[in-house]
Amino acid sequence: MAKKKSAIGSKPPYVGIVGMGYVGLPLAREFCAGGAKILGFDVNKKMVAKLNKGISPIKHIPSKDIAGMVKSKRFKVTDKMNQLSKPDALLICVPTPLTENREPDMTYVVETCKTIAKYLRKGQLVVLESTTYPGTTRDLMLPILETSGLKAGKDFYMAYSPEREDPGNKNFSTATIPKVVGGLDKASLQKSLDIYKYAIETLVPVDSCEIAEAAKIVENTYRCVNIAMVNELKQLFERMDIDVWEVIRAAATKPFGYTPFYPGPGLGGHCIPIDPFYLTWKARQYGMPTRFIELAGEINTEMPHYVIERTMDALNDRKKSLNGSKVLVLGLAYKKDIDDVRESPSLELIELLKKKGAKVDYNDPYIPQTHKMREYDLKMKSKPLSAKMIQSYDVVLISTAHSDYDYKWIVKNAKLVVDTRNATVGVRGGQKKIVKA
Fold first, then answer.
1. Number of H helices and number of E strands within the chain?
2. What are the tens digits of pLDDT across the range 313-356?
3. Which domains does the chain have, with CATH numbers?
4. Is 101 helix (H, G, I), strand (E, B) or coil?
5. SS3 assignment, position 243
6. What does the pLDDT look like over 178-223, one tens digit per residue?
7. Residue 315's pLDDT is what?
């Protein structure tokens, strides 16, 4: 393993980062802290303008950090792709979503590589950080980049190093999370290590791009499968009148052989709901079904529907119908205390509630209004909370357990609370109002 900033005394690199989102911006911050010069690329002109003014578009990245980077004159962002030839290394941090048929959508990676190929120069390093299937770097990216007339391993270098961001996690940062790096060849691997050591404390070199690509898929498939298991157990234990959260708490006291995972209203974030399907798709090319992974995907995908059924049953017990009821969804982000809504189950919950005829509002202290996404365009604004406001809803559905919420106060004022996150576990009184889902 290589350690951060082991090249003290050598000239810091000039690093280009393509995509200034939840992966690219934290990475830029760490490179800047390590003494490197950063040129960020993004097609969103408004984001480019904000960043160059020292304004952060991401809640957990303070604007004071970005302002400091700009003031140092070692950080600049542009939408002019003809500047791609300037940096020593180009790190690609663009989305890798799924198509409607749950197959890899490599459009962003392909288009980015086509653009880089126009400006690629000798000696540059190109690294993909976006999560993808094994073989992407060598089989998809390499032929596109070589349309430049340059040869990989001879004229330029290539590697794959998967992002390991966990927004909102105060125990780990981009710099402190060990980073796996796989090169197209030995020279590419060494070039990558020489660059990344300015940003990351611990580097983990592996023998190929494919190993690095597979490692990232395994990490997230592991989480997907285990979350699916507890989501299924939640439904079973509900029928048995057993609190799944208490079961997990008890099981977690075992100091070996068990890692706790927790159920929820569905999977969210850009990785865990998507990455296992990349591996499933790739496995089909080898004539092998991945039944275990596909089953986990089915269970997790159905969780929002389970939550809606529990909400309907809870209202029915109070002689109410979901159709026509007023529902307040608490939390739009996919996890607590962040402003990231990518693949958030809250989005699907809102759509399902509306399809059932409910009148739906939401509150999220981190997301003042929704924006248009690939699959959703809710056109909604966060409603400010007050006792009178909460009392006006037939049901309050806790989808994201933000720390900002006063759950005792919410339960006190709500007529009915559907809790998908066990957020009300410490609330005394009002238990008859609370339904776990």
1. 13, 14
2. 999 999 999 999 999 999 999 999 999 898 899 999 999 999 99
3. 2-207 (3.40.50.720), 222-436 (3.40.50.720)
4. coil
5. coil
6. 999 999 999 999 999 999 999 999 999 999 999 999 999 999 999 9
7. 97
Q: Which two tokens stand for residue 364?
A: 């999220």
Nearest CA to 418 among 256, 280, 310, 301? Answer: 310
d(CA 135, CA 52): 36
Q: What is the dihedral of CA 178, 193, 22, 376, to 10 degrees?
A: -100
At 273, list the tokens.
């709901």
Tens digits of per-residue pLDDT, 85-95?
999 999 999 99
Question: What phi and psi, each to the nearest 5 degrees, are found at residue 179?
Answer: -115, 120
Residue type, 412: K
Residue 424 to residues 25, 79, 118, 270, Cα–Cα distance (Å): 34, 46, 55, 27
DSSP for 141-204 reads: IHHHHGGGS--BTTTBEEEE------TT-TT--TTTS-EEEEESSHHHHHHHHHHHTTT-SEEE
271 has catalytic annotation: yes
Length of the chain: 437
Residue 83 neighbours by CB distance under 10 Å:
14
The terminus-to-terminus CA distance of the chain in angstroms comes to: 44
Can you tell me the distance from the alpha carbon of 383 to that of 380, in angstroms, rounded to the nearest whole number? Answer: 9
Read off the tokens for 81: 């792709």
Residue with tokens 């996690």, as numbered in its chain = 169
Model pTM greater than 0.85? yes
